[in-house]
Amino acid sequence: MMSQQAAEFSKTLGRRVRMIRGNELLTRRELAERSGVSERYLASLETGQANPSLAILFRLAGALELPIEKLLCPSVAEVPARSSQPEITHHRHHPIG
What is the largest CA-CA distance in the chain? Predict the structure, then answer.
């Protein structure tokens, strides 16, 4: 049985893997094929039910073409999206006159 802290880390890691995979526009099957990790295991990982080894984390990072630190970083916001999403631009209102 996992400790509370380990269980929370697994959930966070799973959300991060799912978010990165989505940003890369990859299906679970495609990531499984690229990484050599089974689709079923990826589903367990993405739902926080799996506790992956370092070897699996390195395989996933390699398949996603990311340094492993990006999978393990505390904030998913630090992971840049590579998909073609429109850039949001904020304009300042400058009064005329």
Answer: 69
Domain membership of residue 90 (yes or no) is no
Ranges of H-type helices in 26-95: 28-35, 39-46, 54-63, 68-72
**First-to-last C-alpha distance (Å) of the chain:** 69
Domain extent, residue 22, equals 4-73
* Per-residue b or e along 12-21, where b marks 16 or more CB atoms closer than 10 Å to that residue's CB: ebbebbbebb
User: pTM of the full predicted structure?
Assistant: 0.71
User: Domain with 17 in it: what CATH number?
Assistant: 1.10.260.40
Tell me whether residue 25 is in a domain. yes
Query: Could you report the per-residue pLDDT of 81-95, keeping only the tens digit for each?
Result: 554 443 444 444 445
